[in-house]
UniProtKB/TrEMBL annotation, chain A:
Pfam families: ABC_tran (PF00005), DrrA1-3_C (PF13732). Belongs to the ABC transporter superfamily. InterPro entries: AAA+_ATPase (IPR003593), ABC_transporter-like_ATP-bd (IPR003439), DrrA1/2-like_C (IPR025302), P-loop_NTPase (IPR027417). It comes from Gracilibacillus kekensis. This is ABC-2 type transport system ATP-binding protein. Gene3D superfamilies: P-loop containing nucleotide triphosphate hydrolases.
UniProtKB/TrEMBL annotation, chain B:
GO terms for cellular component: plasma membrane. It comes from the Bacteria. This is ABC-2 family transporter protein. Keywords: Membrane, Transmembrane, Transmembrane helix.
Length: 310, 291
């Protein structure tokens, strides 16, 4: 559905997007994650035919963005990260205007608009002036606007930025609805957890380059070289420390002075190695009370990998 | 939807008209404009009937017509840049342009409907002032043809200035810069051309002394055809600059040059605006292939 090939965008000597390659299948919700200025909006602008690439191409629905811009525009619904509204329009007039901009006949527009407003929970606002809506409502209205011509692909640039928690939850609910409608969605965020539960696939971008790609657990594996095992022992911890330090997969053992019974092992082995480790520990008479893997969330990993950018 | 229909019922045009005419400001400005025009006319008639011996003659009526037309031209020259120079850059500043550009609307249709919606308001002002011309007709002195020619002249001037405004609004990113540039161009057309005309006339007539009528230098004429005020005045008062042009050997009225010059300016400005509205994707991708 979306093919990005060697896409590069340069502004003078600054490279905003560096040889990006991506392939997104129909019906996939693809999350584009990266710190601010990593190249997410640049990619989206090129896909939305608003920016010409310096090198490389992108295809949407089989149409090349540079050559068949008109067909591409027909296939996409685009929600930019920052957008304005015509302040003297009412909600239904706003949608009607964009509907007619896509050449949808008047009678059809009249039928679609209430359905779209229902989808984004704005039915009771149909006669309100657009300018008087809250930020979250405007964001939802803009999403309804992007859907008016029933596009196959949705390009959503930071749709949840600037929203309060309740509005975020609502936005997520709508996106889940759209996912059920079998739309291909690419969505960007600089906050990783926001996307992890929603997306089938994720791409992490930094300095214009894709540094990780795959589903959530694959990303975790790609980005996380070692895990941390938490071991609680009873009584004397020193013997345990010596034992664990001898294991080839343990890179380091740390513990807190105040709580020496809780050991943190930096571990590089597989799950099978972990089983062997526990078995050996018991055979050697190490009084292990608990052994667990420290839960690292995606946000920690994200912070870790994007540290270089700061 | 047929092409013709989509041109006639254009969404952007529709939207602009709705938004512009919905505001109370538009209503007030038309009211004020008509009130001022009416007051000027009545004052003119009052002065002529009270203080001149022969009362309000057809000659006075003709003068009133010229005054009204000049007033309309002044209105067009000073208001059109303000109405059009923000047409595209204003959308950009309000962050609505990107969304508009991702719709199915062609660049041509966006630019043209922006132009027409901006000058439509001015046209309404002109049409609304038509009853004032009935005073002129009441006293004679001006033929209906002259009035029609005047309207055509004003319309062309409006279109051209509007197109220049739209072009700068598209090319220059900020409304304020586009507005200042458009007003700058207007100032040049109104004042700069006259200054250059006088200088060039001095030069040419100075060099060709004694051979008056045979110099055949068209430069002063070409400078003057870009001046809307002089061109308009000379159509009403055909003896204007007659002596100078006779010396240069030019016997073509100014409007003959003015009309094509302004049509070309309009078309050029619109073409640039349409081309620059969206990024030129094709040219760049070709370059990329070569590299």
């Amino acid at each position: 559905m979306i093919e990005i090939q060697n896409l590069t965008k340069r502004y003078g000597s600054f490279t905003a997007l560096d040889n990006l390659n991506l392939s997104i299948d129909k019906g996939t919700v693809f999350g584009f994650v990266g710190p601010n200025g990593a190249g997410k909006s640049t990619t989206f602008s090129i896909l939305a035919t608003l920016l010409s690439p310096s090198e490389g191409t992108a295809y949407i629905n089989g149409y090349e963005v540079a050559k068949d811009a008109k067909q591409v525009r027909k296939s996409i619904g685009y929600v930019p990260d920052f957008f304005g509204v015509y302040d003297q329009f009412k909600v239904h007039e706003y949608l009607d205007f964009y509907g007619s901009s896509y050449g949808i006949p008047s009678a059809e527009r009249k039928a679609i608009i209430p359905q779209l407003l229902e989808l984004v929970n704005l039915t009771e606002k149909i006669d309100s002036y657009v300018d008087l809506l809250s930020r979250g409502m405007k964001q939802r209205l803009c999403l309804a606007r992007a859907l008016i011509h029933d596009p196959e692909v949705l390009i959503l640039d930071e749709p949840a930025s600037g929203l309060d928690p309740r509005a975020r939850v609502e936005m997520r609910g709508i996106l889940k609805e759209l996912k059920k409608m079998d739309k291909t969605i690419i969505i960007s965020s600089h906050i990783l957890p926001e996307l992890s539960e929603l997306c089938d696939e994720l791409g992490v971008i930094e300095h214009g380059q894709l540094i990780a790609y795959g589903n959530v657990s694959q990303i975790e594996n790609q980005l996380q070289a070692q895990k941390v095992l938490l071991v609680t022992v009873k009584g004397d911890a020193e013997q345990a420390v010596t034992f664990f330090e001898e294991d080839p997969f343990v890179v380091g053992v740390n513990y807190d002075e105040e709580n020496p019974q809780l050991l943190q092992l930096s571990y590089q082995g597989t799950e099978d190695d972990q089983v062997t480790l526990l078995k050996q520990a018991i055979e050697h008479g190490i009084p292990v009370v608990t052994l667990s893997q420290k839960q690292t969330n995606l946000e920690d990993i994200f912070m870790e990998i994007t540290k270089g950018g700061e | 939807m047929s092409r013709l229909q989509s041109l006639m019922i254009n969404p952007v045009l529709n939207k602009e008209i709705k938004l512009r005419f919905r505001s109370f400001k538009s209503f007030i400005s038309i009211l004020l404009f008509l009130a001022i025009c009416g007051a000027v006319c009545l004052a003119f008639i009052y002065i002529e009937t009270q203080f001149s011996q022969d009362g309000f003659t057809s000659e006075d009526s003709r003068n009133l017509f010229m005054l009204l037309s000049m007033g309309q031209l002044g209105l067009i020259v000073f208001i059109t840049p303000g109405l059009t120079a923000g047409a595209i850059s204003g959308e950009r500043e309000k962050q609505t342009l990107n969304i508009l550009l991702t719709t199915q609307q062609s660049s041509t249709s966006i630019i043209l409907s922006k132009l027409f919606s901006s000058i439509l308001f001015l046209m309404l002002m002109l049409v609304a002032s038509l009853p004032l011309y009935s005073i002129v007709f009441l006293y004679g002195g001006v033929s209906p043809q002259t009035v029609l020619i005047m309207f055509g002249f004003l319309l062309l001037t409006m279109l051209t200035i509007g197109s220049i405004g739209i072009m700068f609004s598209t090319v220059l990113k900020k409304t304020i810069v586009a507005t200042i540039t458009t007003y700058g161009i207007m100032l040049f057309l109104l004042v700069g051309t006259i200054i250059l005309f006088v200088i060039s006339l001095q030069f040419i007539l100075g060099f060709s002394q004694g051979t008056a009528g045979q110099s055949n230098n068209m430069l002063p004429y070409f400078l003057l055809i870009f001046n809307p005020a002089v061109s308009m005045f000379s159509t009403l008062q055909s003896n204007m600059f007659m002596y100078e042009f006779d010396q240069l050997g030019i016997h073509v009225p100014l409007w003959v040059g003015y009309t094509p010059a302004y049509i070309i300016m309009t078309l050029l400005s619109l073409m640039i605006a349409i081309k620059k509205l969206r990024p030129s994707m094709k040219a760049k991708s070709k370059k990329a292939k070569k590299g």
